[in-house]
UniProtKB/TrEMBL annotation:
The keyword NAD does not apply. This is histidine kinase. Residues 407-629 form the Histidine kinase domain. One of its GO terms (molecular function) is ATP binding. Coiled coil: none annotated. NCBIfam families: sensory_box. Residues 208-261 form the PAC domain. Keywords: ATP-binding, Kinase, Nucleotide-binding, Phosphoprotein, Transferase, Two-component regulatory system. It holds the Pfam family PAS_9. SUPFAM superfamilies: ATPase domain of HSP90 chaperone/DNA topoisomerase II/histidine kinase, Homodimeric domain of signal transducing histidine kinase, PYP-like sensor domain (PAS domain).
Amino acid sequence: MKRDKGLKVSYDTIMKSLGKTAVDFPVALFELDSMGCILSVNAFWQKLTGLHANEVLQKPWFDLVLSSEQPELESKWRSFCSQPEGHFEAFFTPKLTQPNVDFLLVKISHSAQGFLACLENRTELKQANQSNHHLREKIIALFRNSNQMIIMLDRKHRVTEFNHVAAISARQRFFREMEAGEDFINYVQPDRLDDFYSSFEQALTGQHVFKERIIHAPDGQAVSYEMSYSPIRDEQNQICGVCFTGLNIEAQKQMQVLLHHEQLFVSAILDTSSALILVLDQKGRIIRFNQACEKLSGYTFHEVQGKHFGFLLPKSERESYLKRFDDLQVKDFPISTQMPLVTRQAEIRSISWTGTVLLNVEGTVEYHVATGIDITESEKTSKALREHEEMLRQIQKLDAIGQLTGEIAHDFNNILAGIQGYAQLIEESLASGTVAAEHVHEIQRICEKARALTGQLLIFSRKHRPNPRPLNIEKLLLEMNPLFLPLLGENLQLHTDCAPNLPQILMEPTHLEQLVMNLVVNARDAMDKQGEIFIKTFLKDEKREIFVPLFGNRPAGKYLCISVKDQGTGIPVEIQEKIFAPFFTTKAEGTGLGLAIIYGIVTEYGGYILLNSSPQTGTCFEIYLPAMLSTPLSPASSSNLLILGLFEKDLESLENSLGPEYTYSALEIPQTAPPSGQRMISRLTVENIEKIHNWAKQARTPPQVLYLSGTEEQELALLPQLKPWEDILICPMDSFRLNKWLQA
C-alpha cells in the first residue's frame, strides 16, 4: 500500500475531522479499520515513529505504545470504540523512541471506513510538564520548609494559603489559629493598617514591595521584620492576588549591631595603637593601614588602599624583600624581622616587624597581618652610645697610658738627676780639655736631652704643673714666624689667617708654642716637604655642652680655634683613633710623641681637638681652647665671694685667674646664716665640707660652693658627700671654668 496516496481522504480533510486546521509542522497521519488496525500511513510516519509502513500495517495502533502504558491506553481505546461519535486523545511513550521523540499525542476520530488518526510529537511538552512539576515541588517544599511567613491573599486580602511559620506566628502573636478565607487585616497591627493597604495596592498594580518594619510582640518587645508584597498572576497573566512574606530579622539585626560594635572596637584599637599595623591580602596588596602608619609614612589609607606594599620599600632593596615575602610559607609564621619603610618625604625609617597570617577554611593564607615599631631613633641612640662607649674606652686608654708614662718619666727623671749629679762631680775633678772630661760632658748633654724627652712625657701625662698667663694668639704666631722658615724650607709655603679682635687664652706660652710647632712639623712631614700649609684662627661660641670623641664632655662657652691644614695624603680612618697615643708613629724616624704632647696640652687646658682628613683634601687639625672672659665680674658679684682654707699658692692662682679688680674675703665660717647669692671657694677637705654643710643648714637658700682639689683621687673619694649646690675644680686652676662658675 502506498502511504500518502493510500489515504482515502486528503490531509486537510483529516485535520478538519480531527478538529484541527493545517499546521506548519508535519504530523504522522494514518487510517484505522473498525478494529483499530492500521490501514495506511503518510510520509512522515517513519520519521516520527522510526517504523516502515510494512512493519505496522494490519497491526493494532496501540502496539506502538510502551508495554507499561499499553493496558491502560488499550482500555481507554475500547471504551472509545463503543461510542458512536467523539474524539479520542491520549499521550503515550512509544516503544521505539527517536532522537528528541519520546512523548507522542494520538488523536483519533470516527470515519466512514473506520477511524482517522494522527500522531504529534509532544516531547517538548513533556519536558515542560516535567520542569513545571519539579518547579512546583520545589515551591511546595520552599513553602513548607521556609523559615519565613508565606501567606497567599486574594484581591480582597483574604487568606487563601499559608505555611506553618505563618500559623505559628498568628498563634503566638494574636492567640488565634489562622484560617483560609479570613481577612488578613486580622493580623495587622492597627497602627500599621495604612501601610499595609498602601503596600497591598502597589502589589495589585504589579509592583514588588519590600519593607523593613518593627512589629511589637505581645510582651511589648520590638522585633524587626523584613516584609514583601508580590503579585500573583493566573493563566491569563492577570493579577489574581498577592503573596505576602515576613521574616524575623531581629537576631540578624542584633548580630549586625554586635558586628558593628566589634568593628568600631577593632578600628579604635588599630587607630589608637602607637604601633604600625599593616594588613595585606594574599598578593601583598594593602587592606588595612592604621593611623600610626599614616602618621609615620605621610600617606593616607585611601592613597595606599589596594596598592602593593612594595612601593613602601627602598628601590635598592625592594626586589630582595619581595622575594622573601613570596617565599614565605604558613609554617614560617609568626615571624620577626627588620624591614625599612620609605615615607612620602623619601625618608627611610627602620621598622621592627612582627608578622602572622590569617587562614581561610581551606587552610591557605587569606591575610598577612604585621605590627611594627619604628626603631630608627633607638638605633641612632644605640649607635651613638656605642660610639661614646668606644670613645670613653679610648679616653681611659690614653689616660692609663698617660699615668704609666708619667710615673716612668718621673722615676727616670730621678735616675737622670743622679747620673747628672755624679757626672758633674767627676767633671769638676778632671782637668779641662782631657778626653775623659769631654766624655763626662757628653754624658751630661745626653742627660739633658733625656730630661727634655721626659718633660714631654710629663706634659702628655699632665704631671707637669703649668704656669698659665693671658696670651694673644695672633701676636704669638707672628713671633713664631721666623722659627717656621728653617723648618719648612723653600718648597713649602705657610699661610696665616687670624680673625680680628680675638680674645686671649690663659695658657703657658711654651705649651702654646710647642702645640703650634708640633702641628706645623706634622703637616710638613705629611706633604713630603712640598706644598702649602694653612694656619687659621677664629672664635667659636658653643651654646650648650658638647661631647667630643677622646675628650668627653666640654662645657658651653667661647673657644678660640687654631686650625692647621695641609695638602697631604690624609690619615687612614683605621688609625685615626690611635694617633694621639704616645710612641705611635707611621714615620720611619718619628718618636710618636708629637701628637701625644698636643693631646696632653689641649686636655690640660680644658680644650678639645677635631680632626678632618681624607686622601683628596689632606688633613686639618682644629684645636679648640677656652677663651678668657672679655668682661670682668661686677663688684656686686665679687663682693659676695668668701675664701675658706686655701693655701698660699691657691690664693696666688686665684688672683692670677680673677685679676686685681676682683675682691674677696678670706675668713672662717661666719656665725650668721649665709645671705642669698653667697659664693664660697674652699679647699676640698672633709673638715671644710662638714663646716660648710653645718653653716648651710641655717640658710633658706644654700650658698654656691666651689672646692679646689689637688688630685682626681681625692675628688672621687669625697664626691658622694657633696650636695647639688657644690662643685669641684681640679688644680691647676682652670680660669675658664672658674669664671663660668662665678657668672652662673
